[in-house]
Design brief:
14 helices; 3-stranded mixed sheet; binds N~2~-(3-carboxypropanoyl)-L-arginine
Length: 416
């Protein structure tokens, strides 16, 4: 068995739009009402996938979910008195951010030696709470090999769970036993704390993690108030390295100490606030990056283009590349359409450490599949959606036809 990390990116759905649905997500709020460009958005995501396929040798993808969600539309019983945001929820393409699809514990970390996945209930936001039934169904197909994977039920709805966006794994190498770090927020602040401690603890138990190799850390309430609605907006980990803003955790030193007690070779790369303010980190998504181990053994940080345009962030990046730290390469990518809704490179991917031969091959990307997907996106994805189009019959038909064409092309019509 050769275990490797595969990034499963969400293909941006044909209904991608800016409805300002996520309270506490500054980009989502500030782009509310803008026209969106679903075709460009999906092609940007596909380019990121192609780059990582070439760089890392493996790349997976997950499909857009069925939209508009007719069951949710019926439940919401529109009569014209409802708020516009309620009308937009069934149209959201938010499943593109697959870091929120599930929490994943790879086989070396679990009691039964299988890779465990718990779909996130995403209960805090209506437009996201509709995702899990279809996400679960898709995960059960992609990771349907029961000798190697277990797909769990969601955590009970009273405990908010937002999946891998609040979960980090430290390890000597992806295939060796890791220490899993769950980051939760304490409710009561200006913005919702979307990951509840009880959900994190429940997922860790369900996955059969060793308590001695599991750490629970509280997010800094001030970071949530500044717009870090998920921990992956302010820190990211890979192998021995934790790349984090100095204001990510409620007790920063306490968090390092707790992780180091379970994982002594932890290497912290902390970005001080006087080099990059928490606001600038959130605006540019420096930490919503993919920190990846390249085949030559070096680590690369795949950041949004916005980082290169920020004087303080890019100055820090240049110093980091020139220094002796573990992060040697910084690779900017253009995911602006996703960024405008608060989703950077890390939001767009779900990391799964597994043997690629155990995954349903229909979810693995190669150049030929990428060309097929590009052809469908270019032909069927709407070029532009204006806020007034949301709810229209014509747009509904376009979106439904586009997704069906993608599923047929990928031999995944069973998820229709
Ligand atoms: O849940 N945006 C997403 C962004 C998710 C980012 N994911 C991670 N950090 N891993 C969210 O807030 C915006 C939708 C809208 O406004 O229409 C949205 O849902």
């Amino acid at each position: 068995m050769s275990l490797t990390e595969i990034n499963f990116d969400g293909i941006v759905g044909p209904s991608h739009n800016y409805a300002g649905l996520s309270l506490g997500n500054i980009a989502s709020a500030s782009h509310k009402g803008d026209p969106s460009y679903p075709r460009a958005a999906a092609l940007q995501g596909l380019e990121k996938m192609r780059g990582n396929l070439a760089r890392l040798g493996h790349q997976g993808f997950l499909l857009p979910l069925p939209r508009p969600n007719t069951a949710l539309t019926e439940t919401l019983a529109y009569d014209g008195t409802e708020a516009a945001q309620l009308r937009a929820a069934p149209w959201s393409a938010s499943s593109m951010w697959t870091a929120n699809a599930a929490t994943v514990s790879p086989a070396p970390d679990t009691k039964d030696g299988k890779c465990h996945l718990t779909p996130a209930n995403l209960v805090t936001m209506l437009h996201r709470a509709q995702e899990w039934p279809d996400t679960k169904r898709m995960l059960e197909v992609a990771f349907g090999n029961r000798d190697h994977f277990t797909v769990h039920d969601i955590a009970p709805m009273t405990f908010g769970d937002e999946g891998a966006a609040n979960h980090m794994r430290l390890c000597e190498g992806h295939g060796s036993a890791g220490v899993e770090v769950f980051v939760y927020g304490r409710p009561g602040g200006k913005f919702p704390a979307r990951q509840h401690e009880q959900a994190s603890r429940l997922v860790a138990r369900a996955h059969g993690l060793d308590p001695a190799r599991t750490v629970f850390v509280e997010q800094n309430p001030a970071a949530i108030e500044a717009g870090a609605f998920h921990n992956d907006v302010v820190s990211v980990a890979n192998e021995r390295v934790l790349f984090t803003h100095a204001e990510a955790f409620a007790d920063q030193q306490g968090a390092y100490d707790a992780i180091r007690a379970a994982f002594p070779s932890l290497e912290v790369v902390e970005v001080p606030s006087d080099a990059v303010s928490i606001e600038e980190a959130i605006r540019t998504y420096l930490f919503n990056a993919q920190l990846v181990s390249q085949p030559d053994g070096t680590m690369a940080l795949i950041v949004p283009e916005e980082c290169r345009e920020s004087a303080s962030v890019w100055a820090y990046c240049e110093r980091m590349m020139a220094g002796n730290g573990p992060i040697k390469h910084i690779i900017p990518v253009d995911v602006r359409q996703s960024m405008a809704n608060g989703g950077g490179p890390a939001c767009l991917r779900l990391r799964v450490v597994c043997d690629p031969s155990t995954v349903d091959p229909r979810f693995l990307l190669n150049e030929a599949t990428a060309d097929t997907i590009a052809g469908i996106l270019s032909h069927y994805w709407p070029e532009q959606i204006d806020p007034a189009d949301i709810g229209s019959e014509t747009l509904a038909k376009t979106v439904i036809t586009a997704r069906a064409a993608l599923l047929a092309a990928l031999d995944l019509a069973q998820l229709g």
